[in-house]
Each structure stands twice: as structure tokens, then as C-alpha cells.
Amino acid sequence: MQQGDKTVQNKNKYGIEITKDLTIPKLFYEKARKYGKNRVAMREKEFGIWRPITWHDYLENVKYLALGLLSLGLENGDKVSMIGDNRPEGLWAEMATLCAGGVGVWLFQDSLIDEVKYIIDHSDTKFLFGEGQEEVDKAISILNECPKFEKIIWDDPKGMRNYDQDYLISLKQVQQMGRELERQQPQLFREMIDKGHGDDVALLFYTSGTTALPKGALLSHNNMLTMGKHLMAVDPCLATDDYVSYLPFAWIGEQMMSISCGLQVGYTINFPEGPETAQNDIREIGPHVMFAPPRMYEQMTRTVQVKYLDATWIKRKLYELSTRIGYHVADLKFQKKQIPWYWAFLDWLAYIVVQKKLKDHLGLSRVRNAYTGGAAMGPDHFRFFHALGVNLKQIYGQTEVAGISVVHRSGDIKFDTVGHPIPETEIKITEEGEILTRSSSVFLGYYKNPEATEETLQNGWLYSGDRGFIDDDGHLVVFDRTKDVFTLRDGKPFSPQYLETRMKFSPYVRDSWVIGDKREYVTAVICIDYSVVGKWADEKKINYTSYQELSQLDQIYQLVEEQIHKANKDLPETARVVKFVNLYKEFDADDDELTRTRKLRRAFVEKRYHDIVDALYSDNDNVHIDTTIKYEDGRQAQINTDLHIRKVKDCKLTVS
Amino acid sequence: MAVSNAIKEQDVLLEIEDVHMSFGKVLALAGVSIKIREGEIHSVIGPNGAGKTVMMNIINGLYMPQKGNIYYKGKKINKLKPYKRAKLGMARTFQKVEVFGGMTVLDNIRLGRHIHSKSGVVSGSVYIGKTAREEVEHRTFIEEKIVDLLEIEHIRNKPVGMLPYGLQKRVELGRALALEPELLILDEPLAGLNLEEVEDMARFIIDVNEDENWKVTCLLVEHDMGVVMDLSDHVFVLNFGNMIIDGTPREVQSHPEVIKAYLGEEDLYATRR
User: Do the domain assignments include residue A389?
Assistant: First the structure.
């Protein structure tokens, strides 16, 4: 029961006092006035060049956009939705909405029409900022079904030349309307900002919804600002820092870094050219701080592992040597032991020869603090980054606390925990083992869902639905979602997520789904990584035409079996994966198998693949699949195939 | 669609008049005539071996017609070399991509800017003054107009030979566009592409044809009937060196001989949708 760190003063080191009166627009206005034309607020890579946008430009754009929204008829508390890639216009739209007294709602860029419709309709959205043709098309198709939905604002003219519906308006036109309004009422923008109060709703944020429809969490200005302040008290950032914004704004973590923290510190936010260039653009910027869900780090690990397999003999040997040194030093650090001078020297050598270059390629060369959160990260990935000398920390939090509540402290990192609560945040564990949080960042409630609010918010405590405990060092250990926790055949509880992340350390495994609650033994459904396994097959001169065919090849089963065997090694016998099957496709958010943040929707896949589950617990070696799959463009295809079921070697089906 | 009769002579960008071409005893083109008007997408369809590529090679100047004339903007260009035709504003892509595999995407596209380079040998060899300024202008043009249009930001510095086929086709289109052509000849731009790539490519062709920045007249040779009928203003049907019909997609689709010779063979030319 860790108490918050009371020593942190109300006024933090950036000279900002977060009172109940402060709002995000007020802070924004203050910063923009202070920095003016002398500081770069954001950069966007466009046409191959990084183009700076100063705080002055940022303010001007937001001002006219906000006034334009007023001219369009935005009233206090109206909802404005945003959809599109990470780009300055997206952030301007959000900030303008807040300045004009509206409430911001973000949608995932790749949301399907049904998802867009649900959120637009449920949130009572009046205006939608869509990036370009694709988003506008989505919005047009649902316009008639959402009675409160009035206007669509777009900013990328590409492909928009034949659209002339009167509910469409370009961002530039809205800003022009704003300019006219300013001429009539020059003080209006200031007055609007001054009207705001910290307890007003700033954002309506939809949770990813692993079980049911997404719920809309209402977050106040104060929630967002105190959250940022508390994180910055732990790991201060500098105004000269660079941050790369490339993860969806509809994810609370990105809001936290771009708005809550970014605004307080005033660091530069960099926007990559497009989603495909993000990795390369990150390398060019070399950010100082990074916050990404585990899948991004998993992807980096996979990249390194695959490049390693491709490298020449001498490079491979050097890499092996340097990682061995790295792992040893990292383990010493985890155990908080003194590092002997000769190991420190070897570590320095490893850094010079291998790690420096490697970190540069991953865009991690300047990173002071890298955070991962949103899902569990496997210990193997975690150790991998520390062996590279990257200060990777786990965080724990949720949309309902405006981001995070628990984080590792530098020099006090344990890879199976998530660390200590941030200042002025209390964490409590109920008798059932549920994690509760109380702080000034706890949200106001769910939009139009009093039952869920009542369940989640009790006496100021947030009931997370996560199971965990606090270890001897006062670190919080998050076990898993309460409803997901397994009971193994020996009656012990076990976390399926832990098993899944262990298997995902293999570059050949992209996704895994572990089954075994109250069953005789544990089994797994594996989605192979098409590009990595495909490349492996090419090198072995194995023929295949599609994912489906590749996944069912005997050699591939052999390969996956080895990977599972490795992951099984340190596990208690009852938790080992005994049987597995390679799925004929990858899990996909478009098929509802994953959430938009790529979390497995367990209840759904269990229903969808019940045939496979049944077969895994029978004596069959095969399971017949006859199903239709839907492509994004609406076409359907029939899948008619047999999946093999394989037993992992050295695993017993029953207790000896 | 109101067409044909009302067209004035000056609207015609390219005209072929009674062109004959034979290779030994094989008569590839037996008196073909076509008028391509400014701003349109004019497609040429026909079974394999109908003479479509020969027709493109004649327009582009790779072959000289044995009989008949070619007019570009009213000027006879029968004997003009291909590079001279490029200077007049003609660009093309090939059925099988003809890119420089060892060069980067940017360099391939830059090559297409060559005809717009005005600086001399001396200035070019030391890369100062005029050449440097020109290079910057070219690069700006390439980035703002071509890379952005074709969405190839993520590969601009990759060697073309390493890229998948679909992207190589895009690069080739980019190089043709770098010439800032008035007439773009596209020889089977969709061949060998998957569904997603076909949709992308079709969109680029429409963009190039309609967008304020481009307004390029397109001559399209293609087998994918769905795309051809969707995009084209006019469709020219060729069968063993002879024209069957030259009309609007609607007229072509209802022409009995076309149906017999071409569209009827559904299995062979089934559209990809």
C-alpha cells in the first residue's frame, strides 16, 4: 500500500502551478505567448524535409480554427471528433476544440465504418475532422444515421476535387471564417479561453473494449494536467527534448506525451511523413523520450533478430559477444550489484563496437527514458533492451486515469514488476487481488453509462479489473486481467498473457493465444510471422504460395515446436504448453479478434475458433476448418482446410 | 456522353492516319487510324498479339511506320527520334518494367527530369550556380508533385531492384511523369499487380488525368476490362491489326463484334473484380 510521494510541491519545476482553474487551453496560450517565434513547437516531415512550426504558428492556426468552429455553431460542451494520421493539423484540431469549449473525441485511423459510426453516434459528435478522402468517405456513409452529426472538416486536398457536398468544408475555409470572426470580435478568443475551468470535460476517450462495446471515459482538463505533472516529477523532460508522435492519438499514451507532458515541458513534437516512414523518421530525429506499447518494442527485437540471422559470420560473433556482455551487466544492474571495473570496461567496448550502431538504427541513440505500457511485456524483451543499454521502463495505467499511475524509477527496475506509483497517487489491492487507484487524475465517469461508472468508480477509487499484488520492494506486480486469469490443473492461478509474451520472444511467432483455464493441460494457437517465417522457408528452399499453406507445412511446425520448447523451459510443469496449432491466418483487428491497440479479445476468439479449441482437447491430430473470411474491400473467400495439431516434445499430457 | 462529331480539329493532340506495319509476312497493323483528344483517357484493347504494343512503339518512335502518318499537335512526326518526341511532351511506361534496378527510386525519377535540365557541361561538372539551383528546383518538383502523388515516400532512397514489382511499376510511372508530359502512354500498367495495387494504380491514373497540376492526356493499353471501362473516355478495339470500333465504353460494350472477338471470352479476360 504505497503512499504517494508527498515531497513534490504543487508548483513543479517548469514553473506551472496546476490549480483547479487551469485548463489545457490556458496553459497552451501561456506557453505559446512565452515561446512565440523563437521556439519550434512541432516539426512535420513533408516532401522529404523537416518543416518547423513555431509556437507562434501553432497559436495562430489554433486560434483561427477555434474561432472558425464557433462560426460553424460550436457550443460549449459539444463533441468534436478527429480521425487521421498523426500530423500537426490533428493536434491543432484538438487544441482548437478545447479552446472553443468543445470536447475532443479521437478515433483510430484504421477504424471500420461500424466502429466509426458507433463512436460518432454514441458521443453525439457535431463536427468531425477527417484527414482526407478516405476519412471523408467513411464519414459521408454514416452521416444520415447519426442525427447530431453536422459537418465534416478535411485538410488534405488529395482526391477531394470532385466533392462538393455542403456538409463538407476544408480546414482552410474554417480558418478563414475564424479570421473574419476575429475582425469583428478581436477579444473573443481570449475570453473563450478564460471561461474554461479545470473540472470541465476536455476529452471523451473510448476504451479499447476487450469484452464489450467501447466505453467513453470522460477526462477533465485537471485529470490530464495532473497526470502529466506527476509523470514529469518522476522523469523530468527538457524543453530542448525531441519527441516523435507516431502512435494513434486515439491511444491515451500518445495524448499523455503530446498534450499532458508536451505542453507542460514545451518539448518539440515531431510528426513523421507517413506511417510507413515512421521507423526511418524516428532514426533521423533520435527522440529523447519514447512511449510505446510492447508490440513496437517486440517489432524492434524481431528486426534485430532477423538482421542478425542475415549478417556475416564475424558480425554475428561480435553481436553474440556484445549481447552476452550486455546481458551480464544488465543482470547485475537488476540485482542492484556493483559492476566490477572489468565488466564496466567490457560493457564500454560492447557499446563502442556493436550497441552504439544498433541503437542508432533503432532510433534509440538519444533515448533517456523509454516506456512501455498498455499490455504486458515479456521478460525476455525487457532484458533484451536493457542489455542494449536502453533505459526501458514499464508503466501501468489505463484510460481512466488519463494515462499512467505506476512507473519504474531509474536504477530500480525489475522486469516482472511495473514499479512504484507516481506522486500523489495511491494504489491499493483489494482482498480479491484487484488493483485500485486513487489520484487527481481519476476520470469523471463513463459517458451515458451510469452502471459502468458505478462499478468502476467507488468512493474515489478506480476499480481496474486487473489482478495484482505488491511485492517486498513495494513494486506493483500486475498479474493479468482478473477475468483472464487461469486456474491450472494443480489449482494454481496463472497468467495467460505471461505465457503468450514468452512465446512472442521468438521472431517466428507473431501472435499467440494460450488456452487452459480449468483444463487438463495448456495449449496454444500460434500465428506465425509471415515475413520472418517466409524468409526462413525461402532460405531452406521450401515452397509455399500463401500464409495458409506455409503455416501448415511440417517444417514450420517443427520450427514453431522448437520455439515453444524454448519458452516452456523455465515454466512449472503444469503451465507448459503441451499441444499447439498454427492458425491459417494472422489475428486481425478488422475481424474483431484484436482491439485497435492489438490486445487479444479472448472471449471472441474462443467463440470463433471453438472447433480448434475442442480439437486441442481431443485425441485428434487434425481439425477441419470450413469458414468464410472477409477482406477489407468487402470481398469474401472460402477457407476450407485441415489444421494439424502437434504435441510439443518432452511434455506430458497428465500429471505423473 | 456527347462525343465525336462536335470535336474541333485543334483539340486533337495525337493523330494516327492509316498506319501499316508488318514484320516479314506478319501484318501487325493494317491501316489503323486513331485520334486522341486533349484531356481524355483513350484506351486501346484487344487480344494478345492484336498489335497494341506495336501501335505504342510507333507512336513513341521506336518503330517507323511503313505506310501512313503520325501527327502530334497537327505536326507530322513520322521520322522523329524517340528522344525528340519526349521533348515534345510524350512519355511512356512499358509492359515489362524498364527501370534501372541498381539506382535508387529518386535517381530513376530524376533521370526523367533530364530533358528539363538547361545548364551546361561546365556548370554541371562543378555543381555550382545554375546547376545547383536547377537541381533544387527539380528535387522540389519531384517531391511535391510526384513522390507525394504516388505515395512512395518510404522508398525514395531504396534501390529499385530491391522493390516488389508493384512498386517498380509506380516508380516507372513516376519517371514518365518527371518529363511533365502532355501525352502519357501507359502500356499495361496493371499487368501483374494484385488487387490492392490495381486500385492504387487506377487512382493514380485518374489523378494524373484530372488533377489541376497535371491534366495529362493518357493513352492506355490494358487487359483489365473493369478498369478500362471505368476510366476511359474512349475505347479503341484492335483485332489482328484492324480496328473493330473506336467509341465510348458503352458503345464498345454493346458492339457485337467486340463481344464475339473479345469480351465474350469471359474466362480469359475476366475482370479482376
Answer: yes
